[in-house]
Request: fold
Amino acid sequence: MENIKRYLIRGGKPLKGEVRVSGAKNASLPAISATLLAKGLYKLKNVPKVRDVFVMLNILEYLGAKWAFDKETLKIDTSTISKTEIPYELAHQMRASILFLGALAGGLGEGRVPLPGGCAIGKRPVDFHLKGLSLLGAEVSLDHGDLVIKAKKLRGTTIILDFPSVTTTENLLMASVLSEGETIIKNAAKEPEVVFLGEMLKKMGAEIKGLGEDTIYVKGKKKLKPVEMEVIPDRIEAGTFIVIPGLFEEGEIIVKNIPFHYLETPLQKLTEIGLRVERIDKEVLKVKKKGSLKNTQIFTSPFPGFPTDLQPQFAVLLTQAQGISVINETLFENRFLYVFELNRMGAEIKVENRTAIIKGPTPLEGSPVRATDLRAGAALVLAGLCAKNTTTVYNVELIERGYENLIEKLKNLGAEIVLETGG
Ligand code: UD1
Reply:
């Protein structure tokens, strides 16, 4: 069997209780690569112990850094960095390895990063990254499948992004903080994870204005210094948990360490769908089901729009809502592969191009299903919790890329879920 690690879920049992949101994977990854911008000792608190983080750390270690988790604090020492070339064996495991391109260019003036391959949710090209870095004065070429960057002298300039791409904005921030003069990034991404990286760079000594806005201004500095940072909560993990009460009669859940400010759009959607959303403390949220769920329409778009990384989880919720719901995926062309798995469980979802049309409510029936990407995998777990009988979710390595202790967290809420390995 090609992949034998799987989750077994006995569904239909209402979940109840409290769950705590971990640190954000997508904030941790750029923060880890940013440690290349100034040699020395960094302390990052609240980094989730998930697969993508370890891939990033293994790459950093290959380049010569040392790292260790000391309880909740990740210590990274980049004073011994000795290489600038990343091997394919490490990089191909994760598309976000592209984040090393900006950090190597900015911090070390050169680098070799394997071009990320295709990915299950679509083509995901890197042309914006290359265009932006070239405008800053870097020479980027393709050599045997690797991006080779030479950036001996980077000069500030104005870069207008074709689309507010998250990792492109992050790469350009990292490349520009040590360049000469002022860089202006227009149509920049406003995602909280981009803002977090910007705040980290500011703490390191960078001069940055406009974080969280359309235009970011960076004044290049000669030198930066290592820092301590606490990673922001994972809004996508939080967004996955808040769906749970809607899957059960009288469902109720308390979610702690909630980043309210980053989750306004999904919370508003949840209210529209008919769940009761109550802030019961500064970072604590109660979500409760009150009667039947209503259909809705979701458009994914860059922050503060509805996150593409939450559409599969909300699709599962909408299989339990009355009437026809519609999801328009505007970011990635291939993000509905999970629909075919959900339909095998009894959902009635039609996909036309980038639109999913969901007819609800449909009872779900446990089945063997296969995760097609990280968030699709999380959605199938939610479906398994909601479904009658046993659901087996295959390809769970994809889920482990971004969810910390998912099984333990769900078990604490009363779920019957186990990880099985072997044939
Ligand atoms: C990041 C997130 C990912 C999330 C996505 C959108 C990380 C590590 N990953 O991915 O979880 O789903 O933002 O919120 O933070 N594009 C190009 N050329 C490029 C770059 C992007 O055409 O050079 C297109 C993409 O195909 C996509 C759109 O721009 O259609 C946005 O993608 P982008 O914001 O770059 O996503 P990532 O940064 O890869």
Observations:
- The chain has a mean pLDDT of 95.
